[in-house]
Specification:
Structural class: mainly alpha
CATH topology: Arc Repressor Mutant, subunit A
CATH class: Mainly Alpha
Strand order of the largest sheet: 1-2
CATH architecture: Orthogonal Bundle
Number of domains: 1
Number of helices: 4
Length: about 80
């Protein structure tokens, strides 16, 4: 995995007790699954960012990358 992917994945956080322990974007109450659902519903990146101003372009990329790794069963280690 390259440095760019590592930086993107740092945006995905797993905080016990936050959103039921689901992976979220930057520790906010915004699950990765919500970003994926918005994309699958046909919203563009621009539309998502307009509707959710706390999100950043890199957050959407990070959600997609995280989902890709999870589907490949790639182990992701979050170190503090």
């Amino acid at each position: 995995m390259d440095a760019t992917n590592n930086l993107l994945l740092e945006r995905i956080t797993l905080v016990p007790g936050l959103m039921g322990g689901k992976p979220t974007i930057r520790g906010m109450r915004f699950p990765v699954s919500d970003v994926l659902e918005l994309l699958s519903s046909g919203l563009t990146e621009t539309e998502i960012l307009e509707q959710h101003p706390l999100l950043e372009k890199e957050d959407i990329k990070a959600a997609l990358l995280y989902a890709s790794f999870k589907l490949k069963n790639t182990v992701i280690i979050h170190a503090s």
